[in-house]
Write a structure and sequence with these properties.
The structure holds two protein chains of two kinds.
Chain A lengths: L4 H17 L1 E3 H11 L8 H13 L3 E7 L5 E7 L1 H27 L1
Antiparallel strand pairs in A: 1-3, 2-3
Helix pairs in contact in A: 1-3, 1-4
Chain B lengths: L4 H12 L1 H25 L4 H12 L2 H33 L1 H30 L10 E6 L7 H10 L3 E16 L2 E10 L3 H5 L5 E2 L15 E4 L1 H8 L9 E4 L2 E8 L15 E4 L3 H4 L17 E6 L5 H18 L1 H4 L4 E4 L6 H49 L4 H36 L16 H27 L3 H5 L7 H38 L9 E7 L7 H17 L5 E5 L10 E6 L11 E8 L3 H5 L3 E4 L13 E5 H6 L10 E4 L5 E8 L14 E5 L7 E7 L4 H15 L5 E6 H44 L1 H9 L4 H29 L1 H7 L8 H27 L3 H6 L2
Parallel strand pairs in B: 3-8, 5-7, 14-19, 16-18
Antiparallel strand pairs in B: 1-9, 1-10, 2-3, 2-6, 2-9, 4-7, 5-8, 6-7, 11-20, 11-21, 12-20, 13-14, 13-17, 15-18, 16-19, 17-18
Helix pairs in contact in B: 1-4, 2-3, 2-4, 4-13, 5-12, 5-13, 5-14, 6-10, 12-14, 12-16, 12-21, 12-24, 13-14, 16-21, 16-23, 16-25, 17-20, 21-25, 23-25
The chains are: A alpha+beta, B alpha+beta.
Chain lengths: 108, 885
């Protein structure tokens, strides 16, 4: 809770994206979130790369330089076991948070 | 959150290799933008439009890059900070444990920091002069001084030194408005300050041109402390005149505050040109400046750039050979040596180094004992934490993470201990630096800790934490989570106990060595106190006065001495009184070369060096020195009668090769006069307690005048009172005379006994510390063993075990450990005998009485430390024990 909530939701989006796609580069993550959320959510590149780096340092994701289908070199990210575990927790937390907020909104 | 120690290291590495990281981020951002450009073109934009759009959407790439890099720094600090915070919180929750650890380490590290600051001051710290490591002290095979003509020759002939300066320690009488006082100075050659590279704090120094003609250069340079304390820090002191030895000297300048000459132990008040030597030392004509047989000069030089010590030494010894050839009488067999300056070359330097390093070695043993305690406490704590660690492991913490957490806690402890120890050392060594030896001589050492001591304490703390904390940390990480949580005893209980057993054995062994060392030094002190000194200091007081400095000479001085003695003999409470130029074991000792009457070979190498004293009739009676044969001096042994002397037994046997020398003669100096021996006195100690069977001779002071006068008074009155009376009596005859070195003979002997006292205090403290540490260590082990076996003991009591059986159950293992530790300690102590010998005079580690006492101490230690836990074991109530858990 608190100051980490917004950062936490970006983490959640990125981890979930990686969970759904197995592995993806930064640009692909931006596109994926944009498409899946029907253009509702747009990830800032200026926030995405620091978040990726932080999550990699925390051991939730790992990376590898690979060649894309269009023969370009890009850094691909993948979930680790720890990341999967964290995603699970983060999803539960998020559900709790949404439930809580919804309860407050209904009450009002 | 899962983190590994490896990732922390990686991040720290990243911090230092930001360029590599930034390259990678650059590549990643570039690939991101290129992919966007390609997609934009695929969506129908022109290439220019596509690129502009991609860049716009990405935002500022530099900022992004910086933010990525900042993540590293933030994460590292955050996680380390979190660990430290957690460690402190946990430690505050068990204050007894924390205090025990910090205290153990504070003592161990504090002791080491103090000893290290002494080693630092004596051995490591360079003199506060430019390029101090290029300075060399010139000594010879037989001593640390040179004759002044030899100095001049070496200075002028050598090709390997940038400069060679000479100096000599001298007492000087300073007259001021408040009367005369004796201060200590240095005679120094004109190039002295240049060779050392010192710049004046005020005014200027004298130079080579001002040190050419004897007696013609009455210039003085003051030390900072003399300028402040004796001249009130007068800002206009330069150019003023001061009176030294009743002559006017011009003050040229003031030396910088940090400069105390080149002898670490001697802080002079004033520097005077060497050519003033005859005036300062009150010699007729040119004093010893032209005399090759007086070796009174100390010599220090600076190596030329690019010249090694070996090269310089080879060059100097070529000159030595020339000098031996040119002046065989004085220089036969002359061989130079180069030493590190600071402690009269290797003369004090060698023993001081051996002493301080020996003490440091023992101090390290204290630290080891403290660390053993730490490891033992940590391992007990790790055992208590098993459950917590098991929980943490089972919810996904990596073993490395656990190790890191436990290590952090240990490091927090060891740094806290180190900080406390350093503060302890700081306080004590400041007190040590202020300490002035109880004598009229400016002996002082600056042992204030500098950055080296701080670094030493820091490194020792970190090493202690890392080395002794890592084993328990490693063991903690080996915890078998599932087994423990099920309530079964940990799989490593047995091996852990064995580990703690090893620690206790180690601790007992260290304790044995340290207690042995302190007892050995105590025995040494006891023996040196009981040692026959050749005189009986009890009830004797002394007062010294230097008539030479005050301008008395010859006949006038002799008459004055007589009148003073008559005055003093009249004083109430004085049993007897005498005077001499000096007394044995004081700092002022003189030697002369003597020869048998008919030497087999008239060569300088036949010479035997003997300490000599000029004494008045009645001296031996006052000093309690037994006259073994012949007679004492009488008032008729004066300048008009034949030359006579009284010698000690060693002199008779070694110089005259007879047990009955009375009436026989010896030669004073190779071409010197023959002297008849009229009496024999017992042997004694003259220069130091370590001397044995040293030859000494006594001249009648009426026959051989000396202005340096020490008055000895035997009286049942307290020393302070009788010395006051004596001083007043002297002042009645000449109120201007500077008096010095007054007090009881016992007090003065403090100087001779000082090293022994210092060693005994240091080693005694080590011994006490070691015992304290060992008691806590053994106590901890036994308590822990009892606590872990409550149920078992309860069952045994329930099925009828009797108290002796319980006691042997609890103590059997401990007794075995103590025995093994003592055995190892015994071997170590015997092996360390050499180290002890460098620290303590008259030490013998194999002294059976000492060893028996150590065993007794260890046995007592065992009883003390096991008393409480054993009682606890005996009081275990089987019913309660069985319901336990």
């Amino acid at each position: 809770m608190g100051r980490n909530d917004l950062q936490g939701s970006l983490d959640l989006l990125v981890l979930k994206t990686l969970a759904q796609t197995r592995e993806l580069h930064g640009y692909g993550i931006v596109l994926h979130i944009q498409t899946v959320s029907d253009e509702l959510l747009r990830v800032e590149e200026g926030s995405l790369y620091p978040a990726l780096h932080r999550m990699e340092q925390s051991g939730w994701i790992c990376s590898e330089w690979k060649t894309t289908e269009t023969n370009r070199r890009a850094k691909y990210y993948r979930l680790t076991n720890a990341g999967r575990k964290h995603l699970l927790e983060a999803e539960q937390n998020f559900e709790q948070l949404v439930k809580g907020i919804r309860a407050v909104l209904r009450y009002a | 959150m899962r983190e590994t120690a490896v990732s922390v290291i990686r991040r720290i590495v990243n911090l230092f290799s930001l360029s590599k990281l930034s390259e990678e981020i650059d590549a990643e951002i570039k690939s991101h933008i290129e992919m966007r450009v390609a997609d934009n073109i695929a969506n129908g934009m022109t290439p220019q439009e596509a690129r502009r759009n991609a860049l716009l959407r990405f935002g500022n790439p530099t900022l992004t890059k910086e933010r990525v890099a900042a993540i590293d720094a933030g994460l590292t600090l955050e996680s380390v900070g979190r660990d430290v915070h957690y460690a402190i919180r946990r430690l505050l929750r068990s204050p007894a444990f924390a205090v025990a650890c910090v205290l153990s380490l504070a003592l161990g590290i504090g002791v080491n920091a103090i000893v290290f600051s002494v080693v630092n001051a004596l051995v490591l710290r360079p003199l506060p002069v430019e390029d101090a490591h290029r300075l060399v002290f010139l000594e010879t095979d037989s001593g640390f001084t040179q004759s002044f003509p030899n100095y001049r020759d070496v200075r002028d002939r050598n090709t390997t030194l940038a400069g060679l300066a000479a100096y000599r320690i001298v007492p000087i009488e300073l007259e001021s408005s408040s009367g005369a006082s004796r201060i200590w100075g240095l005679l120094a050659t004109g190039n002295y300050f240049d060779v050392l590279g010192i710049r004046p704090a005020m005014g200027r120094f004298f130079n080579t041109a001002e040190d050419v003609h004897p007696r013609a250069n009455p210039y003085a340079v003051l030390s900072d402390s003399a300028w402040r304390s004796r001249f009130g820090g007068d800002p206009g002191i330069v150019g003023k005149t001061i009176r030294l030895n009743r002559m006017a000297y011009t003050v040229l300048g003031v030396a910088p505050k940090s400069f105390h000459g080149t002898e670490l132990w001697y802080w002079p008040d004033v520097w005077v040109p060497m050519t003033m030597e005859p005036q300062i030392e009150n010699y007729p004509d040119n004093g010893w400046l032209d005399n090759r047989s007086t070796w009174d000069t100390w010599v220090i030089g600076r190596l030329r750039p690019g010249i090694s010590r070996q090269q310089a030494l080879a060059n100097l010894n070529t000159i030595a050979a020339e000098l031996a050839h040119e002046h065989p009488q004085n220089n036969e067999g002359l061989q130079f040596r180069l030493a590190k300056p600071g402690l009269a070359g290797d003369y004090f330097g060698g023993p001081a180094k051996a002493f301080s390093l020996g003490v440091l070695g023992l101090a390290v043993l204290v630290l080891l004992a403290a660390c053993t305690n730490l490891a033992s406490l940590l391992s007990a704590r790790a055992a208590d934490r098993q459950r917590e660690i098991a929980i943490r492991l089972s919810i996904g913490a990596s073993r490395a993470r656990v190790v890191r957490q436990v290590l952090t806690e240990t490091l927090v402890l060891s740094l806290a201990g180190g900080a406390a120890g350093y503060m302890l050392a700081l306080t004590l060594s400041q007190a040590l630096s202020r300490l002035k030896a109880p004598m009229d001589f400016p002996v002082q050492f600056d042992v204030n800790p500098d950055w080296r001591v701080f670094l030493f304490a820091l490194i020792v703390s970190v090493l202690a934490g890392a080395l002794f904390g890592s084993a328990p940390a490693w063991r903690a990480s080996k915890t078998e989570a599932t087994a423990l949580l099920k309530g079964a005893p940990g799989g490593w209980v047995l091996s852990r106990l064995a580990f703690r057993d090893v620690l206790v054995v180690l601790q007992v062994a260290l304790c044995f060595v340290l207690v042995a060392a302190s007892l050995v030094s105590l025995r040494g002190l006891q023996r040196s106190l009981k040692m026959p000194l050749g005189f009986e200091p009890r009830g004797v007081s002394i007062v010294s006065v230097d008539l030479g400095l005050a301008g008395y000479s010859g006949e006038k001085g002799r008459n004055f001495q007589q009148r003073v003695l008559e005055e003093i003999e009249q004083l109430p409470g004085v049993r007897s009184a005498a005077y001499s130029n000096s007394v044995p074991l004081s700092i002022d000792q003189s030697t002369t070369s003597v020869f048998p009457e008919n030497p087999t070979e008239s060569r300088p190498s036949e010479a035997i060096s003997a300490n000599y004293y000029e004494v008045s009739p009645g001296y031996f009676d006052v000093m309690g020195t037994s006259l073994l044969a012949g007679r004492d001096f009488t008032p008729h042994d004066d300048a008009s009668s034949p030359r006579v002397a009284i010698v000690n037994t060693a002199f008779a046997q070694r110089v005259m090769r007879t047990d009955d020398p009375v009436g026989k003669r010896f030669r004073n100096g190779l071409d010197g006069p023959l002297v008849e021996v009229v009496g024999v006195v017992e042997d004694g100690k003259y220069e130091g307690l370590t001397q044995s069977h040293a030859p000494a001779l006594f001249w009648p002071i009426l026959q051989q005048y000396n202005g340096t006068t020490t008055i000895e008074v035997k009286s049942p009155l307290p020393a302070a009172q009788i010395t006051d009376d004596v001083k007043q009596a002297v002042a009645r005859l000449d109120a201007e005379l500077p008096l010095y070195g007054s007090g009881s003979l016992d007090q003065m002997l403090g100087y001779a006994f000082f090293p022994t006292y210092a060693a005994t205090v240091a080693l005694g403290a080590f011994g006490v510390l070691a015992i304290m540490l060992a008691i806590t260590g053994v106590h901890g082990l036994v308590s822990y063993a009892v606590a872990g076996r409550v149920r078992e003991i309860g069952i045994r009591i329930a099925v009828g075990a009797r108290p002796p059986q319980i006691v042997s159950l609890v103590l059997g293992r401990t007794a075995a450990l103590l025995a093994i530790g003592s055995a190892i300690g015994l071997v170590l102590a015997l092996a360390a005998g050499k180290v002890l010998a460098s620290v303590v005079y008259q030490s013998s580690a194999s002294d059976p009485q000492v060893l028996a006492s150590v065993f007794a101490a260890i046995a007592l230690l065992g009883v003390f430390s096991t008393w409480a836990p054993t009682r606890r074991a005996l009081r275990i109530d089987p019913m309660v024990a069985l319901r336990y858990e």
